Amino acid sequence: MKAFGFTGYSGAGKTTLIERIIPCLANEGLRVSLIKHAHHTFDIDHPGKDSWRHRQAGCGEVLIASQKRVALMRELRGAPEPDLDCLVKMLAPCDLVLVEGYKHAPLPKIEVRRAARPAAALHPTDPWVVAVASDCDEETHLRTFDLDEHEAIARFICRYLALPRRPREHATRERAKRSGAVLRLTPR
């Protein structure tokens, strides 16, 4: 699995940019996962629900499964926060792991900047920043993108990481072949 990050200060638009790039990567037939760093306490469960009650009672891990998804929640209970390598190993195999946050992680990343949220640039002091996405002109030797260039950014990531391109039709056909299903993509 290869990883590529997005870094920048809060409010720069990292989440929105990633949300718009993911379909471009998926259309290339890539299996994409994401790790997002939260700087605060967060909860994906709701107070009073069974899994919340089990965590509150002291479970270290609670796994919730349905026909649609599986979610694993792990309480750290004072243990150190897992590093990025450990988190990547928790994921199911995929082609690409996008990482939001983790400003200082040693992985290639795009710095996301927005004129409405001025802040010191990270790329001059972070050798892992390989490109900048911004809504204004940036003074840099790095490759720059407008925040709306979703497909161009997706192509850049694929080229940078030398990811295989399998357009969605081909990827669908390959999955069907592996599962033994008969798939017809053209009308009779």
Structure description:
- This protein is an alpha/beta fold and 188 residues long.
- It has a domain at 2-40 and 94-179: Rossmann fold, CATH 3.40.50.300.
- It contains 5 helices and 8 strands.
- Strands 2-5-1-6-7-8 form a 6-stranded parallel sheet, with helices on both faces.
- The protein is globular.
- The two termini are 38 Å apart.
- 19% of the residues are buried.
- Residues 182-188 have low confidence and may be disordered.
Give the topology.
Layout: E1 2-7, H1 14-27, E2 32-36, H2 50-57, E3 61-65, E4 70-74, H3 84-90, E5 96-100, E6 109-113, E7 129-134, E8 143-146, H4 150-161, H5 168-179
Parallel strand pairs: 1-5, 1-6, 2-5, 6-7, 7-8
Antiparallel strand pairs: 3-4
Helix pairs in contact: 1-4
- What fraction strand? 15-25%
Number of strands: 8
CATH architecture of one domain: 3-Layer(aba) Sandwich
**Low-confidence segments:** 182-188
Instruction: Kindly name the structural category.
Output: alpha/beta
Largest sheet: 6 strands, parallel
- The largest beta-sheet arranges its strands as 2-5-1-6-7-8
Choose one word for the global shape: globular
Number of DSSP helical runs: 5
CATH class placement of one domain: Alpha Beta
CATH superfamily label of one domain: P-loop containing nucleotide triphosphate hydrolases
Could you report the average pLDDT, rounded to the nearest whole number? 86
What descriptive keywords fit this protein?
188 residues, alpha/beta, Rossmann fold, six-stranded parallel beta sheet, two-stranded antiparallel ribbon, disordered C terminus, MobB_dom
